[in-house]
Amino acid sequence: MNNSHSGPAVPSETAGETAVDRRRHILTMVGPGTFWMVCFVALPLLLVVLVSFMQRGLYGGIEYQFTLDNYSRIFNPMYIKILWNSLVLSFITTLLCLILGYPFAYFVAKAPKRWRNILLLLVILPFWTNSLVRTYAWIMLLRTEGFINTILLKIGLVSQPLAMMYNETAILIGLVYVLFPFMVLPLITSIEKLDPALLEAAGDLGANPVRAFFGVTLPLTKAGIMAGSILVFIPALGYFFIPELMGGSKAMLISNLVKNQFLTARDWPFGSAISIILMAITLILIYLYFRNAGSKDKLEVF
């Protein structure tokens, strides 16, 4: 009798130890990441939010007095124009990356398997070099005494060097080059998941290749298009070194404005307020992505 009553205590103790070990294992796996996100993401963001409601000191410090003037200053026509120009330039950059990247991504996704890895390596290869170094390489190509102008002058196509630097075209070239892989990689993944049987069915129903592309391929790869567009548009708003180096003093984008407020004007509260506006725009775009392309139920053919 005693043996029969003492038997069940062992599984109970073992189950208790298993539950504790499981909680300890989960804490070990999640704890470091959570600690990192809280210390180096959440707390700095909270600090930026708090500083955005403070006042600038007389000599560039921070006076801890609550104010909304930093946000009201953003509605100054000059700053509104800078924000609008930044949004337009980021949109054009995203559109160019999509127009250039979709055919290339389709070619890579449909390439034979033995070539696909090589082509993917070519897409990833620019990440091996710092983007600032690659930007300086473009400066060497596009400047007045650069490689392109030197070749054009030697073969007689132009009589004087072309002004390819320090304008919005140069900024677009730099942004498209740096952000192109961010558009291509999601598109490749999305196109690879496309069921070839759907295209065959469209052809059997009388659809020509152009109609099959716009009616089947394009709608079913909308998730990749949306993901790539966000991955390009958001960094295009935040990259300040490309407009700084390739646009010169003629180009003032919102990213340069934030940098100048922190480093030159020493107006940290106003710079923080502009950063909060940019984060709000980013959150809106991410919300639209999850709303329009986050569900497989919305991926339908036309």
From TrEMBL:
> Which UniProt key words apply to this protein?
Cell membrane, Membrane, Transmembrane, Transmembrane helix, Transport
Protein name according to UniProt: Putative spermidine/putrescine ABC transporter permease
Residue spans crossing the bilayer: 34-54, 82-106, 118-139, 169-188, 223-242, 268-290
Q: Which GO terms describe its biological process?
A: transmembrane transport
Q: Which PANTHER family match?
A: INNER MEMBRANE ABC TRANSPORTER PERMEASE PROTEIN YDCU-RELATED (PTHR42929:SF1), INNER MEMBRANE ABC TRANSPORTER PERMEASE PROTEIN YDCU-RELATED-RELATED (PTHR42929)
The subcellular localization recorded is: Cell membrane
- CC terms in the record's Gene Ontology section: plasma membrane
Indicate the family of this protein.
Belongs to the binding-protein-dependent transport system permease family. CysTW subfamily.
Q: Name one Pfam family in it.
A: BPD_transp_1
The ABC transmembrane type-1 domain is annotated at 83-289
Tell me the membrane topology, using the record's own terms: Multi-pass membrane protein
